[in-house]
Amino acid sequence: MRTLSVFCLGALLAAGSLAAGPKQLFNGKDTAGWARIPRHEDAPANQPPGFKIENGLLVSLPDSPEDDLWYTRKKIGNAKLRIVYKVSDKVANSGVFIRIPVTPKSEDDAINKGIEVQIDETGDDWHCTGVFYSMSQAKARPYKPVGEWNTLEIEMRGPRTVVTLNGVVVTDYDGVSPVPPKKGRYEPERGPRPDSGYIAIQHHGGKATVWFKEISLAKL
To answer: What are phi and psi of 161, to 5 degrees?
Structure first.
């Protein structure tokens, strides 16, 4: 009888874990739980937004000012982020910031204190989708054709980060190995990053559109 009870308890716990599933950070209706990050701290308060909600999707607005969105409800670590997106053109430029240790007052905080996982098909192997922008080299470039949905997964375990795109590993960084020195002023400052931090979705302007239909989080 005791064996049966233990078995039933284990089955219930397992079923509960499966039922919980990934947590959706974007509800498809509005930006509840998210807030804007201006490109610069002195950006005007009435600056037009860089994103809109349309048909359940988060959509970047072409030719609008750079204006990121950060998730305000908690810092994230030891978890897997799943971002499902598509682009209107190969030149689309966006990204996902992770490990931001402070409340970001401008994009500079996200860039230089966190890590940008790039979204851009046209960059070289240090500046393309799935890499740490200018800090890791792509192991693969498994893009779907323009207009098709891509699945970007970012797994954070302590200081280590593994990024896969459409099921293929693009970046696997242990968090401590040396990275190339900074070259351009637009590249992030080097240095250690925390095991957990805020996340953000980047809007980089330009004439292309990026659609996001899922931004979800699963605990490890």
So the answer is: -135, 130
Start-end of H helices in the chain: 2-20, 107-113
Please classify residue 144 by burial: count the beta carbons closer than 10 Å to its beta carbon, then call 0-12 exposed, 13-18 middle and 19+ buried: middle
Tell me the per-residue pLDDT of 179-191, one tens digit each, with 9 for 90 and over. 999 998 889 999 9
What's the pLDDT tens digit per position in 128-181?
Answer: 999 999 999 999 999 999 999 999 999 999 999 999 999 999 999 999 999 999
C-beta neighbour count of 155 within 10 angstroms: 18
Gap between the Cα atoms of 212 and 50, Å rounded: 13
Alpha-carbon dihedral sign for residues 132, 133, 136, 141: positive
- For domain 23-219, the CATH superfamily is Exo-inulinase; domain 1 (2.60.120.560)
SS3 at position 17: helix
Cβ contact 37:51 at 8 Å:
no
